[in-house]
Amino acid sequence: MTIRLRAPRRLAAVATAGVLALGLAACGGTTKDSSSASGKGTSGGTASADPNAPLKKGLKLAFLPKQVNNPYETIVDDAGIAAAKEFGGEAKEVGPSDASASSQVSYINTLIQQRHDAILIAANDENAVCGPLKQARAKNIKIVAYDSDTNPQCRDLFINQASSEEIGRSEVKLLAERIGHEGEIAILSATANATNQNTWIKFMKDELAKPEYSKMKLVKVAYGDDDDQKSFQQTQGLLQAYPNLKGIISPTTVGIAAAARYISASKYKGKVVLTGLGTPDQMRKFVKDGTVEQFELWDPKNLGYLASYAAAALSSGQITGAQGERFKAGKLGERTIGANGEVILGPPTVFDAKNIDQYHF
Ligand code: RAM
């Protein structure tokens, strides 16, 4: 499947629901719930899939994002929490305030003690979370990675927002078209350990190795750690260190927004092309002021919604995570599990001045 730039696809709108902030969890993170109910989980899945098994009522799900103060992760998790209400479950979000490799470990341990039916995790590091996740699985807690995968040994499913290969290659194509396939380029990523960004960057490098990009040179991969200030400073650093830089790809919503803010008020506006993955709400002003022409994303609400239904299907014994199994994801329809326990949400949308006002997330 190829992503073409001419016909951006409109993704199905999913209603968001409000959530109640219930208080602060350990390590400076926050907790929010779709229900104030508490009590034991209903873990007890089956060894083989029963596609006709009804979704269990009262399932307890917990979303553990990369970090709670990232607007993107908030949209995803809020939609997942709202989805749980649809099938009579309860869901909450807990998580760290930084995206460092081990910042999620203590949260997993707490969620195990609380006997959740499923933990949904956007992993900050594919291996650092593995030990605790394996302990959770030993207690029949289902593990759904979403957004950023763990080592596949440590989860039941990975809900991927789009094909990783498509994301990586399309980012390079978007930039190449804007700079005439020529010049120095840089990547401003999230953390150095982030599984999703690293997978996309691998495909970007593979794409750049093709003959049509022989005049483009990747001079640096910088890391803003999904921290706004650090991403802003890294952008400034890149532009100063590489005066001939023609373009930057930032495959992180935090990074691209910070980079756009820096460029918009600098002498580089209109000279250096910035693209990547951003939310339309954060990027709108930078598209309107001409700092950014095009960027991509999927609908984060749909990602949270799909992950929630997948966790419920696992916890209800409808699926086990094996390739070829199918489950119903509410208004998103039936989904099939692919190789390596991966379920793909769908193709991303390219946003530009013409369509950005149709999107609100
Ligand atoms: C940031 C995070 C997230 C990623 C998006 C595109 O919000 O790094 O993991 O999927 O960007």
Automatic annotation (TrEMBL):
Residues 29-51 are annotated as: Disordered. It comes from Actinomadura chibensis. PANTHER family: ABC-TYPE SUGAR TRANSPORT SYSTEM PERIPLASMIC COMPONENT-LIKE PROTEIN, D-XYLOSE-BINDING PERIPLASMIC PROTEIN. Keywords: Signal. Pfam families: Peripla_BP_4. Residues 62-318 form the Periplasmic binding protein domain. InterPro entries: Bact_Solute-Bind_Prot2, Peripla_BP_I, RhaS, SBP_2_dom. Residues 1-26 form the signal peptide. This is Rhamnose ABC transporter substrate-binding protein. GO terms for cellular component: outer membrane-bounded periplasmic space. It comes from the Bacteria. GO terms for biological process: rhamnose transmembrane transport.
